[in-house]
Amino acid sequence: MDDPIVVDDLERLSFRVDRRAYTDDDVAAQEMARIFDRCWLYVGHESEVPEPGSFVSREVGGRPVILAHGSDGAIRVFANSCTHRGALLCSQPAGQVKSFRCPYHDWTFSNKGELTGVPIPDGYGPGFRKADFGLAQHRSDSYRGFVFVTFDPQQPRTLTEYLAGATEYIDLVADQSETGMEVIQGAQLHGAQANWKLMMENSVDIYHFRALHKRYVSYMQSLGSVPPRRRGGFGRALGLGHGANELPPAAARPLAHWTPMFDPELRPRMEATAARFAEKFGAERAQRITGMNRALMIFPNLMIIDAIALTIRKIDPVGADRMAITSVALAPKDEDPEIRELRKSHYLTFLGPAGFATPDDIEIIESCQRGYRNRTVRYSDLSRGMNKEIPETTDELPAREFWRQWDRLMHGDDGHFEVAHQAELQGAEKE
Ligand code: FES
Ligand code: FE
To answer: Which residues form the Rieske domain (predicted)?
Structure first.
């Protein structure tokens, strides 16, 4: 990449991204090698493999993997590829097994990854040792129930180091239950004819909310709720490409923030939860946990959207102009059944692929992708808020944090925790 793609001009407080970043096949191929083969990537939530023997299989960073809870209690991430001749060992998305049996020639592997059975073993000589053919295990770790994997044995950071300032926000999610959080069974698998980074940008972009989601805003208003204010809240760069937006309490939250969108009968129960949290965490932190709306972006491809319901959204590239999106809802394990139903309904109503918001978002990012075909307009602008000490949610600081890390990794720099926003401020002072 001779010509810079990310043009970060701190003097002029200008931040531009060359649209080749969204359209060029070579860029897409380099992203797989320099980003997805190297970073820590989200695999799943521990609650998806709750017992010894439970597993899920899915694609992570373009690679098929199995997240397995072994009979010894350990949670591991295996390559979903038989060590014999490579078939996918597991084609079920989830289940419960003592062992995995490869459908091609019936080799079997324990849920700890050991090769346990080979049919007609006398076809192999004395040098054949089962111990050499265990499933390939990837380096994995979890933070407060969120399991990540890295395909880079040289990845210098532990998961916690990698998550940098994002841990503060994951804590705000994980603290929403005294008994732990769980993924509600069933995922929404969909996609878009657009570059994967457009969905990352969109998921942390509050600037568009009132403009693009007018139908949802009027729906909320028709139910007597106040949609999020136009101004306010704050955006943050959390280091190493992660960012967040946090809004003051306005929209309803099924956990403990009642508004007229919800059944009045549930109000006392939600208020009791709010009181319990205030007791446990103190008023200020409890308010932040239960009342604020958040969008947390974890580089490169995980969004945790803690607004209305709580959504985990994993966004995977499929070439330059197509992506796969996986969404699941996360909820407190001990949730009141009626509130759980309410949560599910609001999750589907707003964030589901057929809800009020996501179809708008998909349509608009597909429209951006089509707009790039014109090619005359070379850059997209992401400079909102570079002039402010505390950028608002309608500013683009989290997106700039994403792009700065993207740029470092694409240039082969591992990236480091740098206070890019401080540099923005110095630029602002010079103005
Ligand atoms: Fe799996 Fe042969 S490829 S047993
Ligand atoms: Fe949106």
So the answer is: 41-149
